[in-house]
Amino acid sequence: MQAEELEEAFEEEAIQPLGRPAPRDLPPSILLSAGYDGRAEKAFLRLYEPSSQQIYIWYDNTGHLPYCISKRSPEELRRNEKLLSHQGFLTLEPIERYDALRDEKIRVTKIVASNPLAIGGQGKSGIRNLIDESWESYIRYYQNYIYDMGLIPGMPYRVEDGKLVEVEYELPEDVKERLSLLVEDEEAEFREQILEWARLLQHPVPHIRRASIDIEVQMTQADRVPNPEEALQPIIAVSSVSSEGLRRVFLLAEEGMEEDIIEGAEVEIFHDEKDLIQEAFRLLDEYPVILTFNGDDFDLRYLRRRGQRLGFSQDEIPITLGRKFAYLRNGVHIDLYRFFLNRAIQVYAFSDRYRENTLDDVASSLIGKRKLQLDFSTSSRMEVARYCLQDALITYELTAFDDDLVMKLMVLLSRISRMTLEDVTRQGVSRWILTLMEYEHRRRGWLIPNKEDILALKGETATKAIIKGRKYLGAMVKEPKAGIHFDVTVLDFASLYPSAIKNWNLSYETILCPHPEDRANIIPGTPHWACRRRRGLTSLIIGSLRDLRVKWYKPLSRDRRLSKEERVFYDVVQRALKVILNASYGVFGAETFSFYCPPLAESTAAIGRYAMTQTLEASEKLGIEVIYGDTDSIFLEQPREEQILELMEWSRKNLGVELDIDKVYRYVVFSRRKKNYVGVSQDGSVDIKGLTGKKRHIPPIIKEAFLQLTRILSGIRRPEDVEGAKEAIRELVERVYNRLRNREFELEELAFRVMLGRSLSSYETNPQHVKAAKMLQEQGISLGVGDIISYVVTQGGVKPVRLASKRDVDVEKYIEYLESMFEQVLEAFEMDLDQIIGRPRMKTLQSFFQR
DNA sequence: AGCTTTGGCGACGAGT
DNA sequence: ACTCGTCGCCAA
To answer: Which nt sits closest to A694, CA to C1'?
Structure first.
């Protein structure tokens, strides 16, 4: 390994921090992130001081050096020539560690590097590949350094005598008392863990000074996105909106440009692009946090490359680029595109309110604001300025709405996962949980096991999945009772899988543990057993988080006695916990997860099925009719109040899980299909689950008709409403038929929009969207995974929307789609489309003769 | 490059 | 005409 290679591997971390050095008496400041200063060869921390709203830099003076751990003895390792010749590594230190997997203490070797660069990635440049069977190795020196120091990102610290000290946040006595009361039945370890979490979560999140930034680049062709690596086109506008209310546009002057003002914003005109960029760089240095929407891939990348092209020196450009990310030398760059792209955030924090990951879609769904429309080929420079400012504005507001909800959410996630803001906003849930687990291992002085070790000891799964290609048997779905049902109450288990993990002591080390006396403690529905002697780490962590969410944060977020601000904050905490908890089971079944443990995931799901079947039985005994159930929810038809209460009590007592009322429906309509129903609540709001008409890829014209259909149906309150509804449906169908037959539509309205799930060449079959994609490719349009293909169905095939015309459309085919979708719904209502629209049914002989 | 899981549905393509 | 597998999307 050559020194240059090492340097190269670390290029992205080798940045020069800018913020002012932390004074001896730095007031409480929030740990935002860490970096590695290549010149000083030192790790540093970025601290945000809320009263001055400044970033301070704290250099490490502890002489802390990176290390990794090997199972082999020092003697054995000394025989490894490659290892000895490895640049920068020095001492081999025999130590003892607890191996949770085998429940024993063992001797290992700690390999300490003298050069901070020496223990790097896990690839070629890492020391890991020189030692077989290593257990812990560093992915990024500075990052792990945070964990090793026992520091928690997002928490407040003070500098004292050149040392970093966490600012004690004592929970108020009454809070402590109430919390302890909630978990008084639990063992000491569990109670302590709860208090530890509460300390992290209760500590208020300070307001963080920040600004968004967005750039516009001169376009050559209207539909080509400029390449940020080349940065050939000039930057014509840079906009920024800050938390102090500043709205600025830096605009490059154009010949004959008419200068104008933008209400509420400062517009600064530049005649030299270099000056403009200079000003943008100054802005980036100015703020503790910079927000972008896709800044990793575009805005900051383009700014840096363009800056280089125009002759700025390395030191003048405040942006460092990794292969995938863009960082700043002073503050923290948060790319909101990446954050909102995260499925867990999308689904659990924002209940799937936005569907596509564009700024326009996310913003319009969350804050009700949209991008401006702009045609770049004809627009004036001032129009570009307005457009650019609007983007910066909504980017900022995405973090500011609901009292800085998103900012707080990110800081809380950073505390829970023990990751820096930069990392937690860019990486997925499996990384969050991994980092948290690693932290807890290090805190206890435990060895971090290798994936292979876990797999070798715990093995694979024992059950057979229903669906081919899956690894184990999952959740249970009860056959729905078809038809319409009035007064339906839906109960669901509070965090079913996390509860299973908690109550059955599931963890990678406690499942199939080595103790013979635990073998009788069988998980129902599996041949696996779980330990009774020690509390499992996963069970402890997930279990305590679960209890906090269910027993503390969720109730508080709805407690009317609290102020609105308090409730909102508790709601954010509650949501952050939800995001982590919901992913906590799945990761153990993911091969890519470092604590991959198939029997653990399998057991969790098995306990879920057990809870469901037991509850169905109990309901029957109580005389409640259960008309449907899926995974963790059951639908009860006209249950009496005391029946519900009894069932809830039964669940708490016998399963140790709270059963909550999730929904009360005026009526629910089931077809015979699972995961398909329409529920209408007391207030008339409609829940539609699984029905085709709702799916993302369905053409808008059909989706729209579907929406209107559900509106008509939700209006049905009494039996006598039915005739009117049928008439309305008939009119609706007629309208759409006519539009189709007369071709009174825009092509876009008929477009199926299907995502390319893999690369074009790797498809085994030739589905419609792939056919369309191939046609696009022939036109020289490059397509990749994740791209959405818009196509219409034509006579004898499909065509991409942009290559098709109205004449091509196979109208009859669309009528078929429409009918099949309508029938799916109407069938459940025991209505018949043919009958409603007065068309004889041709499908049976009987109807043929009746004609 | 990034990747939590299994169950279930409709539509289509490919083979018999 | 029928079955079976693939694909994408959704429920939980």
So the answer is: C10
Q: Please count the other Cβ atoms lying within 10 Å of the Cβ belonging to residue A627.
A: 20
How many other C-beta atoms can be found within 10 angstroms of the C-beta atom of residue A583? Answer: 20
Q: Are strands A289-292 and A332-335 parallel, antiparallel or unpaired?
A: parallel
The predicted-structure confidence for A47-100, as pLDDT tens digits, reads as follows 999 999 999 999 887 777 778 888 889 998 888 877 777 666 678 999 999 999
Residue in this structure with the two tokens 């820096």, named with its chain if needed:
A420
For residue A675, say whether its CB is under 7 Å from any atom of strand C: yes
Q: H helices of A228-335, where? A: 273-286, 300-309
Q: Which two tokens stand for residue A637?
A: 């038809």
b/e per residue A473-502 (b: at least 16 CB within 10 A): bbebebebebeebeebbbbbbbbbbbbbbb
* Per-residue pLDDT, A850: 38
pLDDT digits (tens, 9 = 90+) for A691-740: 999 999 999 999 999 999 988 888 888 778 888 888 898 899 999 999 99
Q: How many Cβ atoms from other residues are within 10 Å of residue A759's Cβ?
A: 10
* pLDDT at res. A54: 95
Q: Which residue is nearest to nucleotide B14 (CA to C1')?
A: A765
Closest CA to A183 of A550, A468, A597, A477: A550
Q: How far is CA A495 from CA A200, A483, A584, A655, in A?
A: 21, 29, 11, 13
Q: Is the CB of A121 under 7 A from strand B?
A: no
CA A839 to chain CA mean position, Å: 48
**A232 sits within 7 Å of strand C by its CB:** no
Helical ranges in A310-358 per DSSP H: 336-341, 343-344
Nucleotide nearest to A770 (CA to C1'): C7
Q: What is the pLDDT of residues A390-441, one digit of tens each?
A: 999 999 999 999 999 999 999 999 999 999 999 999 999 999 999 999 999 9
Q: Cβ(A257)–Cβ(A270) under 8 Å?
A: no
Q: Is the CB of A322 under 7 A from strand B?
A: no
pLDDT (tens digit per residue) in A727-739: 898 899 999 999 9
Q: DSSP string of A90-132?
A: EEEEEEEEEETTTTEEEEEEEEEESSTTTS--SSTTSGGGGST
Q: Which residues contact A265 (CB under 8 A, 6 or more apart)?
A: A247, A248, A249, A389
Give the CA A697 to C1' C8 distance in Å: 9
pTM exceeds 0.90 for this model: yes
Burial of A133 (0-12, 13-18, 19+ CB in 10 A): exposed
Is the pLDDT score of A7 beyond 60? Answer: no
Phi, psi of A109 (to 5 degrees): -120, 130
User: What size, in residues, is chain A?
Assistant: 851
3-state helix, strand, coil in chain A (%, to 5): 40, 20, 40
Q: What does R_g of chain A's alpha carbons equal in angstroms?
A: 30
> Which 356-395 residues of chain A approach strand C with CB closer than 7 Å?
none
Comparing every residue's Cα with the C1' atom of nucleotide B12, the nearest one is: A767
